[in-house]
Amino acid sequence: MAMRGLTVFIADIRNCRVRELEEKRINKEMANIRTKFKDGSLSGYDKKKYVCKLLYMYILGWDIDFGHMEAVNLISSPKYSEKQIVSLVQLQQSICFLQEDEANWSLVALDCLDALGYLGITLLMHENSDLVRLVVNSIRKDLDDNNEIHNCLALHAIANIGGREMAESLASDVHRLLVSPNSKSFVKKKAALTMLRLFRKHPDVIPAPDWAERITNIIDDYDLGVCLSVTSLITALAQQYPEAFMLAIPKAIMRLHKVIVERDFSADYVYYKIPIPWLQVKLLRLLQYFPPTEDPNMSEMLHNVLQTIINNSQETPRNVQHNNAQNAILFEAINLAIHLDCESDIVRQATNILARFILSKETNVRYLGLETMAHLAAVTDELDEIKKHEETIILSLRDKDISVRRRGLDLLYSMCDVSNAKTIVSELIRYLHIADYALREEMVLKIAIMTEKYATEHSWYVDVILQLISSAGDHVGEEVWYRIVQIVTNHENLQEYSAKMVLHYMRSPHCHENMLKVGGYILGEYGHLIANLPGASPIEQFNTLHARFGLCSLATRALLLSTYIKFINLFPEIKGAILAVFNQYRHVLDAELQQRACEYMAIATMPTDDLLQTVCEEMPQFPERESALLSRLNEKTGQTEDKRTWNIGGKDSNEKTPANLLAATKERNENGSVDDLVNSVSNTSISAAGGENGAAAPANGSAAPPTPATPAAKVGLTWKDQLAPGYESWYNRLRDGTDGILYEDSILQIGIKSEYHGHLGRLAIYFGNKTHTQLNSFAVSVESPEGLVVANSHTLATSIGPSTQIQQLYSLECQQIVTEVPLIRISYQAGSTQSIYLKLPVLMSRFIEPIQLSSADFFGRWKQIGGAPREVQEIIKVPGKIELERARTILVNHRLGICENVDPKPGNFVATGVFNTSLSGKVGCLLRLEPNHETNMYRLTIRTTSDVVSKHLKDILHTALLYRPAPSTR
């Protein structure tokens, strides 16, 4: 019921134009409330009204120093609305007392909690508040309550505050409400959205793989609203844990089929003749985060769903709302069809529909049409149908809406190939002069990338890039001019033409500083190639550069000074003019310029030119690598709430999307001896039968594509803090081997088998149930350290039968130097939920390939690497006596090749190897191990081409040499 007095009071406050009038009105009302509170016959309604007025004053920032006892008196009110209001004011009063008497803060805080209301929590508390930990128990009580109103209030508070402490304490309670069969539908909806909020804010707190099965099952809930809420949650979780939520694929397809094809839905969820369009859109988008299903029945069912959506789109919309809902579903369906098979008949139908949409009068429809067509262009090899609309797409660059212009640019970039590159690039350069400033940097990057990728003539590439730098210099990042320098350096036939053209552009009255940087580098290296051309004599080249020297930044001046010293080497006849410049800048305030001028002056005035010629030798070719322009463009387009299911650009730009990465990993696994590896693991089982669950992990590689395991950055240090007691004894045995038992207790036995080749490896883990009862809710997740990619090859069975084993295959890729090992988490239900955290013995040394060197080669490279920091040395005192054969075994097990007859002393070990990575290249490793039998010590000396590898390899071998395995009791 509305409170008229409160409404009038708020209106009066809002009508106050200056602070003085507001203060006067506040004081008048506070005096009135004091008077009323002295009247003992106030009704509950009046008390609530006056307390609400106090609350409004508090929200406006005024100090409230009375009304506490009146609020306390209202606690006994049977009306829920009065309890909720009063609790907020009592919280405020308690906070005031807390500020006045810090010594009794705990008592005051507890007093506050006794009367705390959820409106007060959400209004007055933030996630870092000191009182949060004190309200957690109160919130948990309401989550455990059978009153759904109390459940919802608690869920609101958790979602609004959302602090880490609250998430860690209450996430499991929220999950319990979500999956409980006794929870009402609207409680489940709020629980799903609350968990989504907690996951987005603190993803490491939510053990999503453990909860995946029960959360996914809620998609089948009879209440479509619950299904909608949980689909939002699963969409977020599946982006980080795709392998754990593979079960969502058939459930999403069947739910879509029921709603769209079978028309099985409640009339309450029909929006302008369309059944629950929000759920349809979310389910269609969810399926884009997974690879296409291999189940033929599911594939046919999904095909029927998509075809029905395409057919329904032909209906004439009844009104704007119907049109918007229909288009939302259609566009998401087209995106899914493209994701599944861009050459399918459905996609061909969709192409014709998109051609109409990009001509639509509605801005939103044009925007979505261009975006979806860009998706198609990004993944298909057949661009002819899209090229038919090239003129329309180019016209979209001049649309009045900048969002449409941006999507038009994306589409032109995605559809560009050798046949139309010149047309598209010339149009974009023409448009660049009038484009929005917000678009120009992105346009420059895309023009530069298209020009480099699709140039059929080297001269055209140089012309376009120099034109870009000349006309849009302020928006040209350093990556652009770095790249043209690399390409000119690596292509000899470009060098003369580039020098001639850059000299021409530098003579423009409006020459940009980036052009001077390019000109300084190219003329310094290749200016002699055009020195005999008219207008390009050495002194003219120097004068052209030096004319703008004083207007440049310090960094550009430093570059030009380097160009000048090269000119002295190339053109001795202009040495005098350049020495005058060096002499002038020997006394400037900037340390960098002064140092260069002094050093170059000293080199140029030496009696002989030997050092000058050595210093100014022509630059070698740059190593071939991925263009930095692509990385820069990906940075600009990668920051969205949900991960993109495709990348803007051609088909090659989408090779690293999640689905393609999974397919690539699967192909790698199938090329190796995975069958032998799995079979060897299976033969070491702890019991007889493989049983039904033993077949859950087929050894023929025909399972679903592998998916990357949980990245370390998402998990943090919590797993390390929870490692299983006594894991070290099992782990240490496997540090120096490739197969064996990783962990064993009375319920579960875990074993591994592994093999490695270069920067790739394969790891099979088998899980054996030692009991006579089934283990349910079985889940495994892996935390991989930075630089190591761990991907599994199929979805693991969710249960293990009695005396049965199942197995899981992982592919490993060492991308960079790795100094940590992966962690694995195993959880299952055996009476209660059990979780085991272990280290996987995937050490850096596993990715070393042994090599053999002669004595001369070894010591030659030993001297070439030199001392610290690439050399590390340590004296190791071992327990017991030195065992040379054991030391030899350790070196071999860590994949180092022992070189015989290299060290002059026969008892010393010399070993070599190459550490392999896919992104950071190779690292050569040399080692000497010198035993001293009298003192039971080793002197370990390692030299590698990376100081990080040297230190970490030393630590690995140090631990291995010290370790003495206890006698086996098995």
TrEMBL record:
Family annotation (SMART domains): Alpha_adaptinC2
Stored Gene3D superfamilies: 2.60.40.1230, Leucine-rich Repeat Variant (1.25.10.10), TATA-Binding Protein (3.30.310.10)
GO CC, one annotated term: AP-2 adaptor complex
Compositional bias annotation for Low complexity: 689-704
Biased composition (Basic and acidic residues): 631-645
Keyword vocabulary terms for this entry: Coated pit, Endocytosis, Membrane, Protein transport, Transport
Membrane topology label: Peripheral membrane protein
Function in brief: Adaptins are components of the adaptor complexes which link clathrin to receptors in coated vesicles. Clathrin-associated protein complexes are believed to interact with the cytoplasmic tails of membrane proteins, leading to their selection and concentration.
Name the UniProt record assigns to this protein: AP-2 complex subunit alpha
Originating organism: Linnemannia hyalina
